Amino acid sequence: MQTRNLIGGQWVGALSGREEPVNDPATDEQIAMVPHGGSLDARAAIEAAYDALGGWQQRTANERAKLLHRLAALMLERQERLAVLMTREQGKPLAESRGEIGYAASFIEWAAEEGKRLYGEIIPASHADKRILVLRQPVGVTACITPWNFPAAMITRKLGPALAAGCTMVVKPAPQTPLSAIALGELSIEAGIPAGVVNIITGDAEAIGDELLSNPVVRKLSFTGSTGVGKLLMAKAAQNLTRLSLELGGHAPFIVFDDADLDAAVQGAMATKFRNMGQTCICANRFLVQDRIYDAFVGKLLEVVKGLKVGRGSDAGVHVGPLINDAAVQKVEAQVEDAKAKGARVLAGGCRWAGPAGLSNRFFQPTVIDGFTDDMLINRQETFGPVAPLRRFTTEGEALRLANDSIYGLSAYFYTRDAGRLMRVAEGLEYGIIGANDGGPSTVQAPFGGMKQSGFGREGGKYVMSEYVEIKYVSWGGVGSA
Ligand code: ADP
């Protein structure tokens, strides 16, 4: 496969000639070298995206949709190959990689159809001889900066709607997982998407980001990543008032009320906590469990957690693969040590997993911690690892107060069988995505995005198109009367 940058339909190395390695997190083995691009490479990609813009906008939404459907079909046709590649560079279990390719393709398909429905409006005016026309037009050249935890889906969520709306895009994937991005670039060419509509550059994140936000040609940047980097990008976007969508960190509470179906709650907890080794921005980070059922819930959870198989993502039956890099494991370790030092009890796991020879030391055992408190790091910091900390609460009001006590507002979960409570708590949680008796709310039809320091903008559903569209109003005078 290709391992270079895609600019204007050409596969090219970095202008500086520099390269950087891509490693398998499960073994530390180097699997490829990719270009280490910088601001000049970014500028070339922006120019290519600009050159392609006119032709792409002039196509009808139906023509663009056909090409996008072809891209989605190719992704599904090559699902296995793409999944193997993803597991290799990212580490997640192969079954999850397969799932992600399907999920990623769904965003392309969905956007292809939504692009056909960018309707305008005619609004009655206050003057008899005037009409007010509202047009929805593509914003122009767009860019995205994406993370390593979902190497394909975080790109297609942005690329699909951008292209469907008639925008062109420069994609900067995460340095840990550029190969999945490059593979998508290859498929975009095979699907017949014209040169320059999709451009991919790997390399120096800061230099590329700076060019994307200082170059006035780029009208929109969509970013998924940490809150810290999101804030930096927002400050830089002030230069040209570049439009932004920011999908940032999270610190999801997971509330189990004493009227919940406990088996369903455990199943939901497993889905949201241990998927992708706990490295998703919507992972449950704090479990709040009501007094009366605390012990029963913990007992059931432990039973399932102890059955999780740790290992290389490509090995059959593995549920928990390696974390992405050393810093990730160190952060998880530091949170667990801090919790222990401040009085929490480790009920399962609690340290790295020592696997067979040949594997890296980036594996962390699925961990359950009893009795986390306000002062612990794990109560504030995103964990991004397979650690489930639990604490008790007594009343609904207390649960809501604890749940909302966070700078983040991305996702929250709760389990109850009381319909009134379900509505009350859903309304009371200050989070953009609520899993009410559901541990897996992400889906293409729904608006995904956060509140507070989890960012703004929505991806998915009919809402996503507005991220890539300008609203223009034409005041049409002189209509007169016959
Ligand atoms: P994580 O800590 O999970 O890697 P980051 O927010 O650091 O999350 O990374 C998400 C994406 O942002 C990656 O593509 C990364 O290369 C990019 N990135 C990191 N720092 C910067 C920066 N200063 N400017 C632009 N992009 C950045």
Description:
The structure is a single chain. By secondary structure, the chain is an alpha/beta fold. The chain is 37% helix and 22% strand. The strands form six sheets. The protein has a seven-stranded mixed β-sheet with strand order 14-15-16-13-12-18-19, with helices on both faces. A six-stranded mixed β-sheet has the order 9-8-7-10-11-21, with helices on both faces. Helix 2 runs antiparallel to helix 5, helix 3 (79-90) runs antiparallel to helix 6 (178-190) and helix 4 runs parallel beside helix 5. The mean pLDDT is 98. The chain binds adenosine-5'-diphosphate. Adenosine-5'-diphosphate binds next to helix 7 and helix 8.
Features of this protein?
13 helices; 482 residues; six-stranded mixed beta sheet; seven-stranded mixed beta sheet; single chain; binds adenosine-5'-diphosphate; alpha/beta; 22 strands
